């Protein structure tokens, strides 16, 4: 039997506010346990939550970014369940009336085609605390610093059909929230994570199979591995005559498997009801219009502009617009050079990206400014240095040993472009290799590369390659 997987993601993005969604407590990462949880976060008697306006603005901003309907009248509800790191015994969230509804994004598939993924809703809610199981001699510690941290939960329609599609969708949302500035996207710190709902069904069947929920995955690689494992597990269970249990499962990356965590609750089990301490959230067209004016150029728009304005390939444009910071770096490099967009793209995606990856750095941590890289590329364009020597100069710029002009001058790396000088060194090479010269002239054309290499060696890599090739070819054939 041929099986089809059905996947929907619930992505939790921590909003980049300075304080929590219903209190003034700080949201900074890395504070000592329980030093950033106030009475409101703990739900102590007599306290009242007050909605954070910045969180509302960020939710609306995201909604505009996915072409969604912005709900003018939304309601906060209490989602009731017990968990040790949920001190109030309920979570304030949105259920029937979320602030964002019916949006969509487009993802690029491996075969180069585009696929539209609809987004059911994006709703505001507060995060719970964190259970710590290490270093407590068989006990569990509770850190409530995260309690009350503002989240925007983004729920897709079950329209993803493979683990790779799920990762492409997750990466697209990750790129978007970072462009918008609504989330820093730091997966290691838990700012961006997802739950994956996975089921399988026979091809051609319209009804969905029983789904399982893979909980709290904070890595693109782990999302792909967890979904692939779960699909294979469910198919194996069904083909052996078993049934799928609706449950929440955890992914263990060390064993590359999912395992049961608890039975999966339905909405009715949470006993949602409107939070009596919070008024309905009412926003108007003027509020939305003001936020719309703050939207940056979005990734899809920027990608198309890069293709049209800089004549880049779709692949180059995808890579260079994968983050707002990288796109800005690239454009500043082009401006510094005064053109040469393809050459700039090659350097940003090639030597620069390679050096950063080697050290595990992001473009924001790059020790080479766009102006420095642009200065180096200018020296290639005006034939001051060759592309090969430029790589040596780049390494020194990266190590902060100066800019291109200083390094070229200090190390005497200027390219030899004088015709007479190039002719002289070619004559030396031909005189030193009479046997190879005779073989070349008797038909062994492949020896041309040998003579090029010898000539470049004599010039210490400084001879202009184009001139050298042209002059060498004339002398060999004369």
Structural class: alpha+beta
Please give the share of residues in helix.
Answer: 40-55%
Uncertain segments of ≥5 residues (pLDDT<50)?
none
Distance between the termini: 71 Å
What is the molecular shape? elongated
User: How many beta-strand segments?
Assistant: 16
Discrete helix count: 16
Q: How much beta, percentage-wise? A: 15-25%
Mean pLDDT: 91
Q: Largest sheet, if any?
A: 9 strands, mixed
**What order do the strands of the largest sheet run in, or round the barrel if closed?**
2-6-7-10-1-11-12-13-14
Rg, nearest Å:
30 Å
In short:
Helices cover 40% and strands 20% of the residues. It is of the alpha+beta class and 478 residues long. The strands form 4 sheets. It has a 9-stranded mixed beta sheet. A 3-stranded antiparallel beta sheet has the order 5-4-15, with no helix packed on it.
Question: Can you walk through the features of this model?
Answer:
By secondary structure, this protein is an alpha+beta fold. Helices cover 40% and strands 20% of the residues. The chain has 16 helices and 16 strands. It has a nine-stranded mixed beta sheet. Strands 5-4-15 form a three-stranded antiparallel beta sheet, with no helix packed on it. A hairpin with an 8-residue loop joins strand 8 and strand 9 (141-143). Helix 8 (324-337) crosses helix 9, helix 10 (370-381) packs antiparallel against helix 11 (387-398) and helix 13 (419-432) packs across helix 15 (448-458). The protein starts with a strand and ends with a helix. The model has no long low-confidence stretch (mean pLDDT 91).
């Amino acid at each position: 039997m041929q099986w089809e997987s059905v996947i929907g993601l619930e992505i939790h993005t921590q909003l980049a506010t300075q304080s929590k969604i219903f209190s003034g407590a700080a949201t900074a990462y890395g504070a000592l346990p329980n030093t950033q949880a106030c009475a409101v976060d703990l739900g102590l008697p007599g306290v009242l939550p007050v909605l954070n306006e910045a969180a509302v603005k960020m939710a609306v901003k995201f909604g505009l970014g996915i072409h969604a309907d912005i709900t003018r009248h939304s309601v906060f509800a209490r989602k009731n369940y017990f968990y040790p790191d949920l001190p109030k015994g309920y979570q304030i969230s949105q259920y029937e009336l979320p602030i964002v509804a019916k949006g969509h994004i487009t993802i690029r598939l491996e075969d180069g085609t585009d696929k539209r993924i609809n987004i059911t809703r994006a709703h505001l809610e507060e995060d719970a605390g964190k259970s710590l199981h290490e270093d407590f001699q068989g006990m569990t510690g509770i850190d409530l610093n995260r309690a009350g941290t503002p989240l925007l939960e983004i729920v897709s329609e079950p329209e993803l059909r493979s683990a790779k599609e799920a990762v492409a969708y997750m990466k697209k949302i990750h790129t978007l929230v970072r462009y918008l500035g609504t989330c820093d996207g730091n997966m290691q710190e838990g700012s961006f994570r997802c739950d994956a709902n996975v089921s399988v069904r026979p091809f051609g069947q319209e009804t969905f199979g029983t789904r399982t929920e893979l909980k709290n995955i904070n890595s693109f690689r782990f999302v792909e591995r967890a979904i692939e494992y779960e699909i294979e597990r469910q198919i194996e269970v069904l083909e052996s005559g078993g049934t799928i249990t609706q449950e929440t499962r955890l992914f263990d990356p060390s064993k590359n498997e999912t395992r049961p965590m608890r039975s999966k609750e339905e909405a009715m089990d949470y006993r949602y009801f409107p939070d009596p301490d919070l008024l309905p959230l009412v926003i108007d067209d003027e509020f939305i219009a003001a936020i719309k004016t703050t939207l940056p150029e979005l990734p899809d728009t920027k990608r198309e502009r890069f293709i049209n304005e800089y004549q880049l390939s779709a692949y180059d444009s995808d890579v260079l617009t994968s983050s707002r910071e990288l796109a800005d770096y690239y454009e500043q490099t082009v401006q510094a050079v005064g053109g040469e967009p393809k050459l700039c793209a090659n350097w940003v995606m090639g030597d620069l990206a390679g050096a950063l990856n080697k050290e595990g750095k992001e473009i924001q941590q790059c020790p080479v400014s766009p102006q420095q890289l642009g200065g180096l590329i200018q020296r290639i364009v005006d034939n001051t240095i060759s592309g090969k020597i430029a790589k040596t100069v780049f390494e020194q710029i990266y190590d902060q040993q100066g800019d291109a002009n200083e390094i070229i001058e200090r190390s005497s790396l200027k390219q030899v472009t004088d015709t007479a000088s190039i002719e002289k060194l070619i004559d030396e090479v031909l005189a030193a290799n009479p046997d190879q010269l005779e073989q070349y002239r008797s038909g062994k054309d492949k020896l041309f590369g040998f003579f090029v290499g010898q000539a470049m060696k004599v010039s210490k890599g400084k001879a202009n390659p184009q001139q050298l090739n042209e002059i060498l070819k004339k002398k060999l054939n004369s």
